[in-house]
Write a structure and sequence with these properties.
heterodimer; A: 426 residues; alpha/beta; Rossmann fold; Ubiquitin-like (UB roll); de novo design (two linked rop proteins); 5-stranded mixed β-sheet; B: 100 residues; alpha+beta; Alpha-Beta Plaits; two-stranded antiparallel ribbon; 3 helices
Chain lengths: 426, 100
């Protein structure tokens, strides 16, 4: 399948979150202020409601993958008692995604502005930024810079995230900060022991916070001037695999998938498939995916979703089943091991996929049944996301499944296109 | 509560002992790894007694009967947890928040 780059419109990167003239080091507070200006205050009852209404009008939705309306969360937490704690989620446990690390490395002050604004909007007395270990020092220095100038009205602290896939799940972030255990709890994220003084947690992806910092500065009409009417704004995407310039880009929501590939320098080799939305995402055929707008509505007809903005391009020389088996094995190893169906089921699913990828006997009926059996059976969505990804692989690589059942494989390239971290932790 | 209850399992607490599936074969079966697959239908009136027994006998206390509107962990916004309710109950709800 060749990629029709010539027929696609030119795509430009948006310079909202990531400055176009990035020098390779994080912006200082001075540079941040020169670029964005001072953060308007969000304190006080009247102003708080006005600002939340502005965020609602902007249609800002979470950028961590679930796309939950930010204003709804803010309003709920503003009404909560006792006052909440704001968590900036920069864990980014997904190996295919780099956008949160990139954002925190380039514009830590924008994220901190958003986190502090969220604290003012909800009456929170504390902000915790949980950042991937690659960038937590950068964020720590940015916080120290602000603290020394008495910049923020609430205390902000930075914690290095656990380096695990599931550590970025909202309740796992809070669990990690509170008890040093990076596993989902299956309960609404709260801080403190049950009973009086147990604080609710506002967990927001760091990119969402950066957008929030811009919405309170420039207003809803500015924010909605990019994107689609239903899904306004820009978003960060991580483009990887068989593209010439893999990396993190800021795009307008609704940009065609083919435009994203073009942004990354175009396809290096003819593409066999695209994994859209990351390791909990959906495999899609290039012909059906490339013209589709990169938005929830645009990708829905092919069963996909932007998720946290990952698009991985698989060359046509690679075996999609082998890639899927590698990812499934990684995800099985990433299970917290707390819930039986996930702890045992994902390993069983990965085992069947490995058999299939190797051209050995695989009971496809049983594999399909297991995908249904693990869905909705965990305290978090880890089994559900894995099952969705595997189910889409069986659909999109249907011809390959039939070949493999006969002991054949059409791939001529080596497996291992998509990143899967080394030895998986138990 | 007049709505019909449903069975729910806490997947973290559940260890796959399988007692519930033996007590309520009509509503609970076991998957290939021995963990309960719970019917999403309401517990019929005829099985309410057995269902409560299964809830009480679960050795991991992982099974519960849930009526809609009686979700787990209502948290600090649940009934009886508002500041005024606490004050009425003679509990000091802590210092007021800044800026409120």
């Amino acid at each position: 399948m060749s990629h029709p780059a010539a027929s696609l419109p030119r795509v430009k990167t948006w310079p909202r979150l990531l400055p176009g003239d990035y020098s390779g080091r994080p912006g200082t507070l001075g540079e941040h202020l020169a670029r964005h200006g001072i953060r308007p205050s969000c304190g006080g009852d009247r102003r708080r409601e006005d600002r939340i209404r502005e965020i609602e009008r902007a249609g800002l939705a979470g950028r961590g993958g679930a796309a939950f309306p930010t204003a709804v969360k803010l309003r709920a937490l503003a009404a909560a008692w006792p006052s909440p704690v704001v968590f900036g989620n920069g864990v980014e446990g997904e190996p295919a995604s780099d956008k949160d690390k990139m954002l925190l490395a380039v514009a830590p002050h924008l994220v901190l502005d958003g986190a502090v604004a969220a604290a003012e909007l909800t009456g929170a007395g504390q902000v915790v930024i949980v950042a991937h270990h690659a960038v937590s020092d950068i964020v720590g220095r940015a916080v120290a810079e602000r603290r020394s100038s008495g910049w923020d009205p609430v205390p902000v602290r930075v914690m290095t995230a656990a380096d695990r896939f599931i550590a970025g799940e909202a309740s796992a972030v809070v669990h990690w900060v509170e008890r040093g255990v990076p596993t989902p709890t299956g309960r609404p994220a709260r801080l403190g022991s049950p009973g009086r003084g147990r604080r609710p947690a506002l967990v927001q992806n760091v990119e969402t916070l950066a957008h929030l910092a811009l919405v309170i500065r420039h207003g809803a009409p500015w924010f909605t001037s990019a994107g689609t009417p239903a899904e306004p704004g820009t978003m960060l995407v991580t483009l990887l695999g068989a593209v010439r310039r893999p990396g993190v880009y800021e795009i307008e929501i609704g940009t065609p998938v083919g435009g994203l590939i073009e942004l990354a320098g175009g396809a290096e080799v003819p593409l066999g498939a695209l994994l859209i939305g990351g390791y909990f995402g959906t495999w899609a055929e290039p012909a059906s995916a490339l013209p589709r707008p990169f938005s929830s509505a645009g990708l829905a007809p092919i069963g996909a979703n932007p998720g946290a903005g990952v698009v991985a391009a698989l060359p046509s020389t690679a075996c999609g089943l082998a890639e899927t088996a590698r990812i499934a094995r990684y995800l099985a190893g990433s299970s917290a091991g707390q819930c039986g169906p996930c702890a045992f089921g994902l390993g069983a699913i990965a085992g069947q996929l490995e058999q299939l990828a190797a051209g050995c006997a695989c009971d496809l009926g049983r594999l399909q049944r297991w995908l249904g059996d693990v869905t909705g059976r965990g305290a978090c969505r880890h089994p559900d996301g894995t099952a969705l990804m595997v189910a889409s692989a069986l659909r999109v690589f249907g011809a390959e499944v039939r070949l493999h059942s006969g002991g054949w494989c059409s791939a001529i390239g080596a497996a291992g296109v998509l990143p899967v971290p080394g030895p998986v932790r138990p | 509560m007049t709505a019909a209850p449903r069975l729910k399992v806490d997947p973290i607490a559940c260890d796959g002992r399988g007692l519930c599936a033996e007590l309520l074969p009509g509503l609970i079966t076991l998957d290939d790894w021995g963990f309960p697959l719970i019917s999403s239908q309401d517990v019929p009136a005829a099985l309410r007694g057995e269902a409560s027994a299964a809830v009480q006998l679960c050795p991991r206390l992982a099974l519960r009967l849930e009526t809609r509107g009686n979700a787990e962990d209502p948290g600090p916004r649940g009934p009886g947890c508002k500041a005024k309710d606490l004050r009425r109950a003679g509990v000091t709800p802590g210092p007021p928040r800044a800026g409120r």
